[in-house]
Amino acid sequence: MIFKLKKLIFAISFNSFLFLILIIGIQNSSKKSKVYLLSKETIQLPISFIMGISLISGSILGSFIPTDYDKKGITNLKRN
């Protein structure tokens, strides 16, 4: 249980740091684009912000993937 809490705290702090660096880094960005989600579109956002947010969201979602397959009872893909 304590390992999961440490992993969660690390993921939150690491991604918050990445977000802070992203906000500082896009101050002088002039190239802007829109993102189309289903049938809606967003306001014009800097391309670096769009790419940075997708990286951070992927990092957050990736931190929830379990890595202890043997402990969960999931069988190994390698069969003898």
Summarize the SSE layout with pairings:
Elements: H1 2-25, E1 32-33, E2 36-37, E3 40-41, E4 45-46, H2 47-62, H3 69-72
Antiparallel strand pairs: 1-4, 2-3
Helix pairs in contact: 1-2
Describe the structure.
By secondary structure, the chain is mainly α. The protein has one domain (about 1-70). It contains three helices and four strands, in the order H-E-E-E-E-H-H. The protein has helices at about 1-25, 45-60, 70, and strands at about 30-35, 35, 40, 45. The strands form two sheets. A two-stranded antiparallel ribbon has the order 1-4. Strand 2 (about 35) and strand 3 form a beta hairpin. The relative contact order is 0.13.
Explain briefly what this protein structure is.
The chain is mostly helical. It has helices at 2-25, 47-62, 69-72, and strands spanning 32-33, 36-37, 40-41, 45-46. It contains three helices and four strands; from the N terminus they run H-E-E-E-E-H-H.
